[in-house]
């Protein structure tokens, strides 16, 4: 990809989708598996005998097993976050059926082999990388209506969002979904799942009506409101990789109706406009969904005098209010030459306008949840002060506000494992870079800037928590930040289905 095109496409990737899987971090796996620990201490790779790999290949009947010498091995195992790209698996099992997944679980236990599970590979913290066995779910792709149901759709565990979107369009249906079509549906759903529909329909996990998964003992379980209900509760926001490998999801869908989509830009009085947007849009109707971006230019762009840019992307379902009425005092300040509005277009045509194209690069993201009433002028001024102090890398960065509230807040924080209810905005700040263009020192400075920005803004806004689908390896008290008052119950579910932590990674839920 042309480098300038890549920079243009970036403009704040990772916006409404998050990554597939949060599975099996190598460091934690090394601690728990004696065979793996021996290999790590010896400085060697995980190397079962050739006969073991042959046995695995025979057991994975619906797919295939790849080794490093096989074509496309490096392409399949490459994560979206290249920060973790140096961690290469000893082998890849491409599973086509739940039985293939069961065979992999049996094999890794026999071989004391760490493993990770992947569909889209978009885990921000690299938890879908491993030096052991990479269980690739992407052959298990599909999304079909459930026979005899009223709008239920069954999505297979390795399906990418692009396939889900195409099938939903064919059916004339929709769900809460994101913008990045190469993300895996599994990780997106299990960690909550945000998107422009969430204020109208709830989190994506709120629409989950059932799931099937392979657990640590090799069982293939069905979990819903009446069967394995505790496990079902945990799968609605407890994040991927904690309780098993999900092989299917049954989702409640809604009719896909026309929407108005927009990308609006402001170039003047940015602190004033941002404050007004964060305050006034909190009162918008549930039919309105948005994401605010403040984009900080790269060092190349700064050399060309490219300024900070404030923009908002989103959609409006049929509503009693117009966009002009919703945006109130900021409407007249819009830079009309740089802004776009497409009114009353077919739903999936509108999503084509909103869809984000992404590519692998290096990044870290930090997040928290805010209430509009707590975001004062002082906090806004601090955000722009920090933006001016960004040690510019070769990639633009952004601080962002994903609009929550609406239907999300009408579900209690303990009704599902997704605890983050009662807020108006999900805030995040990026650090992005490219290697070897950016030096190790510059990257260190950018990460320090990100941490200080995050800490200062959180303090000024009384922000709380962190979004589990934006996993942050530098987050200190991640257990409480991700899961809050639901942590103890999640630990009990973990104890019931995975007491020895076969499914583990650096930020895995521990059994009670």
UniProtKB/TrEMBL annotation:
Statement: the UniProt record of this protein carries the keyword Aminoacyl-tRNA synthetase: no
Keyword annotations of the record: FAD, Flavoprotein, Oxidoreductase, Signal
Q: Which cofactor does it need?
A: FAD
UniProt cross-references to PROSITE patterns, sorted A to Z = FAD_PCMH, TAT
Q: Pfam families given for it?
A: BBE (PF08031), FAD_binding_4 (PF01565)
Asked if the record carries the keyword Oxidoreductase, the reply is yes
Q: Which residues form the FAD-binding PCMH-type domain?
A: 85-256
- Signal peptide stretch: 1-39
One molecular function GO term is: oxidoreductase activity
Q: Which PANTHER family match?
A: BINDING OXIDOREDUCTASE, PUTATIVE (AFU_ORTHOLOGUE AFUA_1G17690)-RELATED, FAD-BINDING PCMH-TYPE DOMAIN-CONTAINING PROTEIN
Q: Which family does it belong to?
A: Belongs to the oxygen-dependent FAD-linked oxidoreductase family.
Question: Which protein is depicted?
Answer: FAD-binding oxidoreductase
Question: From which lineage does this chain's organism come?
Answer: Bacteria, Pseudomonadati, Pseudomonadota, Alphaproteobacteria, Rhodospirillales
């Amino acid at each position: 990809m042309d480098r300038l095109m890549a920079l243009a496409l970036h403009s704040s990737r990772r916006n409404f989708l998050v990554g597939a899987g949060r599975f099996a971090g190598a460091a934690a796996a090394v601690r728990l598996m004696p065979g793996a620990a021996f290999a790590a201490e010896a400085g060697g790779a995980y190397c079962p005998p050739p006969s073991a790999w042959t046995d695995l290949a025979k057991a994975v009947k619906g797919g295939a097993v790849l080794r490093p010498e096989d074509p496309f091995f490096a392409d399949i195992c490459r994560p979206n976050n290249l920060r973790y790209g140096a961690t290469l698996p000893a082998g890849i099992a491409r599973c086509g059926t739940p039985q293939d997944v069961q065979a992999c679980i049996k094999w890794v236990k026999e071989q004391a082999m760490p493993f990770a599970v992947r569909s889209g590979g978009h885990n921000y913290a690299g938890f879908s990388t491993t030096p052991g066995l990479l269980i690739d779910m992407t052959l298990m792709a599909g999304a079909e209506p459930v026979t005899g149901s009223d709008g239920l759709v069954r999505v297979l565990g390795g399906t990418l969002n692009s396939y889900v979107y195409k099938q939903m369009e064919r059916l004339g249906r929709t769900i809460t979904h994101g913008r990045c079509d190469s993300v895996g549906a599994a990780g997106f759903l299990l960690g909550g799942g945000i998107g422009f529909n969430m204020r109208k329909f709830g989190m994506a996990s709120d629409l989950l009506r059932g799931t099937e998964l392979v657990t640590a003992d090799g069982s293939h379980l069905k979990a819903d409101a009446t069967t394995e209900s505790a496990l079902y509760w945990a799968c609605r926001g407890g994040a991927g990789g904690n309780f098993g490998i999900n092989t299917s999801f049954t989702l409640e869908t809604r009719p896909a109706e026309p929407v108005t989509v927009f990308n609006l830009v402001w170039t003047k009085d940015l602190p004033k406009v941002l404050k007004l947007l964060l305050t006034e849009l909190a009162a918008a109707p549930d039919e309105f969904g948005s994401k605010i971006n403040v984009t900080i230019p790269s060092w190349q762009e700064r050399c060309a005098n490219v300024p900070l840019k404030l923009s908002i992307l989103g959609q409006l379902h049929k509503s009693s209010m117009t966009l002009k009425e919703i945006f109130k005092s900021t409407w007249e300040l819009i830079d009309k030459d740089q802004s776009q509005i497409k009114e009353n277009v077919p739903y999936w045509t509108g999503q084509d306008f909103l869809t984000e194209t992404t590519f692998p690069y290096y990044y870290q993201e930090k997040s928290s949840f805010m209430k509009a009433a707590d975001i004062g002028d002082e906090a806004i001024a601090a955000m722009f002060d920090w933006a001016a102090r960004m040690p510019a890398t070769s990639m633009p960065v952004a601080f962002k506000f994903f609009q929550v509230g609406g239907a999300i807040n009408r579900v209690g924080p303990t009704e599902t494992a997704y605890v983050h209810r009662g807020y108006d905005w999900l805030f995040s700040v990026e650090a992005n870079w490219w290697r070897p263009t950016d030096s190790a020192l510059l990257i260190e400075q950018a990460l320090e800037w990100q941490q200080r920005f995050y800490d200062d803004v959180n303090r000024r806004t009384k922000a709380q928590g962190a979004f589990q689908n934006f996993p942050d390896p530098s987050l200190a008290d991640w257990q409480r930040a991700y899961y809050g008052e639901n942590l103890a119950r999640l630990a009990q579910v973990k104890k019931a289905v995975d007491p020895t932590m076969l499914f583990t990674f650096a930020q895995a839920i521990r059994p009670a």
